[in-house]
Amino acid sequence: MNKILLFIFISFLLVNCSLNKNSKLWNEKEKVLNENKNLTKIFVDKKKKINELNPLLKLDLSKNQKKNKTGDNFNNFGSLKYNGSLNKIANFKFAKFDNFNQFGFEPLILEDGLIFFDKKGNILRFNDNQKIIWKKNYYSKTEKKLNPKLSFSMKDKNLIVADNIAKIFLINSISGDLIWSKKSDYPFNSQIKIYKDRFFVIDYKNILRCFYLKDGSECWNVQTEDSFTISNSKYSLIIANNLVIFNNSIGDITAVDLLSGMIKWQLPTQKSSIINETYNFNYSRLVSDGSSIYFSNNKNRFFSIDLSTGTTNWTNEVNSILTPVIISDYIFTVSKDGYLFTIQKKQGNIIRINDLYKNYDLKKRKKLKPIGFSVGLNNLYLANSDGTLIVVKLTSGNILKIEKVSRGLISKPYIHNGDLFIVKNGSITQYD
After folding, report:
1. How far apart (Å, rounded) are the C-alpha atoms in residues 117 and 135?
2. Residue 267 and residue 247: Cα distance in Å, rounded?
3. Rounded-to-integer distance, Cα 343 and Cα 352, Å
4. What is the pLDDT of residue 81?
5. CA proximity to 328, closest of 36, 146, 65
6. Domain residue limits, the chain
7. Spatial separation of the C-alpha atoms in residues 259 and 262, rounded to whole Å
8. Would the N or C end of the chain have less CB density within 10 A of its end CB?
C-alpha cells in the first residue's frame, strides 16, 4: 500500500513539473544562463573606434612658425626644405641586417654624403656619389658576432659612436681613425646629444651618462628607476635652458642640470600597474618648442609638459609611438591605426583627424602599421610597414599620393638639404 501511494505521489510531481516552462524546478539552470547573458563584462578591454574629425578643416601654418625652436637638440624637425617628386637619385649600399624589424637605425646625413653601419659593426662613410670614402671596424671577432647596433652624433670633425654592447668611441670623421674607445658598464639605448665639450647618452639601466668629448671620461651620471625588462623604444634626450631632459623605460621624464647632473625635476607618467609591463610599453621621442615638451605612448596618452617646472600642461588620448612634429600653433602625429591627428599646441584640443588608411580595405589595414613620418615644406611623408610612402597635404589633410618605395620593410623618411632618404635592408635610397 505504501509503495502504491509513493508511486502516485511521484507521478503527480512529474506530470505537474516535467516539461512545464513555468516550473522553477527544471528551469533554474536556464534562468541562470539567461541572466549570465545579460551580465556586463567590466574588465573587457574595449577598443575605441577612431572616426575622422573635421577632415576638411583648412589650417594656416604660417602663423608663429618662427617662434618654435627647431633642430637636433629639440628633436623637432618640421617644415624641412623638401617638396620633391620622389624621384630616386642615389642608392647607398651596405651589408644586410639579419633582422631589420628594429627601426632605430638612423643614418648620419651630411652635406656631402652620409655615415652608416652594417651588421658586422663596419662604419661606412659615403660621398654624395655613393662611393665609400672609408670603412672602419673597431670590434673584435666576438663583438662582431653580437651584431652591434650603432648610434651616431657629430660635432665638427668628431664622430661619436655608442652601441648596444656597451662601447663608446670617438672617430675622426674625415679619416675614420679612432681617437679613443671606452667600455661602459651597460649597453646604450638612446640618442646621443652634444653640448660644447661633453655629450650625453642613456644606457639600458636607465642611467643618463655625461662624458667629456676629448677623452671619453665620465663627468657624472644620474640613475633613474630601473626595470626588469628592456624597453623596445630608444630613449630620447632634449637639451634646452641648460637642462638635459630625458625619458626612461618606465615612462619617467627627468630634467637635470647639464653641468652638475643635479636633478631639477622628475615626472612619472605611468601608473605602477603599467610599470610592471615595460616589455609592452613604447613611446615617442620627446620634442620641444623651447618652452614645453611633447610626447606620446602606446597607452593612449599624449603629454604636454612645462620644460622649466615639469608640470603637466595637458594630456590627450592619442595612441602613437611616432615622433610628433610642431609647426606653428599645431602638433602633428599619426596614431598606430593610421590617423593623422592635428592638436592645438597651447590648449591640447584635437581639432582635426584624417584617416590616412582609408584607401585600404579592412583586411589590408589590419596588417598595416605606420613606421614614422617627416614633414617637408607643404607635405607630410608617412612610411608604412608595407613599404609604401603616403604623401599628405598638411594644410588640408588630403592624401596626394601613395608611393611604393620598397618590397620590404623601410625606415621613417629623413629629410636633409632638399632631399629625402629612406633606410632599407641593405641600402639607403635618396630621392629628390
Report:
1. 9
2. 10
3. 7
4. 87
5. 65
6. 1-35, 58-431
7. 8
8. N
Report d(CA 199, CA 267) in Å as an integer.
Answer: 23
> In this structure, what C-alpha cell is assigned to residue 48?
575605441
- Closest listed residue to residue 148, CA positions, set 188, 179, 178: 188
- Let me know if 185 is exposed, middle or buried by CB neighbors in 10 A (0-12, 13-18, 19+): exposed
Judge contact between 359 and 388, C-beta under 8 A: no
CA 210 to CA 219: how far, in whole Å? 5
Q: In 3D, which of 279, 391, 371 has the Cα closest to residue 320?
A: 371
- Going by C-alpha positions, the residue among 293, 297, 288, 287 that lies closest to residue 249 is 297
Compute the distance between CA of residue 245 and CA of residue 285 in angstroms, rounded to an integer.
11
- C-alpha 18/C-alpha 24 separation (Å) is 10
Beta strand extents in 83-192 (DSSP E only): 88-93, 108-110, 113-117, 123-127, 132-136, 150-155, 158-163, 167-172, 178-183
d(CA 117, CA 98): 13
What residues does 267 pair with on adjacent strands?
253
Angle at 78 between CA 72 and CA 81, to 5 degrees: 95
User: Residue 25: is its pLDDT beyond 60?
Assistant: no
> What is the SS3 assignment for 178?
strand
Instruction: Pull the grid cell for residue 340.
Output: 593623422
pLDDT score for 45: 40
Q: What is the pLDDT of residues 355-396, one digit of tens each?
A: 999 999 999 999 999 999 999 999 999 999 999 999 999 999
DSSP 178-201: EEEEEE-SS-B-B--EEETTEEEE
Cα angle 240, 246, 251; round to 5: 140
pTM for the structure as a whole: 0.86
Calculate the CA 71 to chain-centre distance: 18
Fold of 58-431: Methylamine Dehydrogenase; Chain H (2.130.10)
Those residues whose C-beta lies under 8 Å from the C-beta of residue 200, and which sit 6 or more positions away, are 192, 193, 194, 208, 209, 210, 211, 237, 239, 244, 246, 258
The Cα–Cα gap between 288 and 267 comes to: 16
Look at residue 17 and tell me whether its pLDDT is greater than 50.
no
